Automatic annotation (TrEMBL):
It comes from the Bacteria. It comes from Roseibium litorale. This is Lysophospholipid acyltransferase family protein. GO terms for molecular function: acyltransferase activity. Residues 66-140 form the DUF374 domain. InterPro entries: DUF374.
Length: 232
């Protein structure tokens, strides 16, 4: 009964709204710094970009979007995804409902192909597109092929992004989720842009995938360093 009613749309919407309100509290009560300095001005000529995040480290990323910039985020169709989708929408982020998979036969079931096409369209229209680079349910912090394929076919660069707070609860989940807490310090770290050529072969795509992993791991470490903590 709990499982059934816990997935009721009204309950999921309510939880999503509460999550959005909580994240606003976290944002307003932490003193955030970002590096490198002046990054948004440097990034402007390369817009739109594909923003890469790790699962479990993504909750505060909507607040990294400067005013006037447009973004859409790819979120799964799961119950957890519905909560995140409601929260993202409340925070002014557009939605692409799809997710990847470690198993090829599940991609269409999860809307992966449709989501890929929607993401291509969004980038062509000038929206930034954010998505988690690792594929549920693990392994954590291992980038999948989807994000580099999106970069190849769209011609847009990948931007690694990480956010950390000095106070958080670290969950023992597959994605090492970090629940950010209010009343502390926050750090936002941007990585170097990763470009994928339109004619990239399998070897080049693998090198790009590894570059996304390395870039996200480096930015995650840097975000935690900004708040005086070790990563995770």
């Amino acid at each position: 009964m709990i499982k059934r009613y816990g997935r009721h749309p009204a309950i999921l919407r309510g939880v999503g709204s509460l999550l959005a309100g909580y994240l606003k509290l976290v944002w307003r009560t932490n003193r955030f710094v970002s590096e490198p300095a002046g990054f948004y001005d440097q990034l402007r000529p390369d817009l739109p970009v594909i923003v890469a995040m790790w699962h479990g480290q993504h909750f505060m990323t909507p607040f990294c979007l400067p005013k006037g910039w447009s973004a859409k985020v790819m979120i799964s169709r799961s119950a957890d995804g519905e909560v995140n989708a409601v929260a993202a929408s409340k925070l002014g982020i557009g939605l692409i409902r799809a997710s990847g998979s470690q198993k090829a036969h599940q991609i269409n079931k999860r809307g992966g192909m449709r989501g890929f096409i929607e993401a291509l369209r969004a980038l062509k229209e000038g929206h930034n597109v954010a998505l988690t680079a690792d594929v549920p349910k693990g392994p954590a912090r291992v980038a999948g092929q989807g994000i580099v394929q999106l970069a190849k076919h769209s011609g847009r660069p990948i931007l690694p992004l990480a956010v950390a707070t000095s106070r958080s609860i670290e969950l023992n989940s597959w994605d090492k989720a970090s629940i950010n807490l209010p009343f502390g310090k926050g750090g936002i770290a941007f990585g170097e842009l990763i470009h994928v050529a339109a004619d990239a072969d399998d070897n080049a795509l693998e090198q790009a995938r590894l570059a996304v992993e390395a870039g996200l791991n480096a930015t995650t470490r840097h975000a935690y360093e900004l708040v005086g903590r070790d990563d995770g």
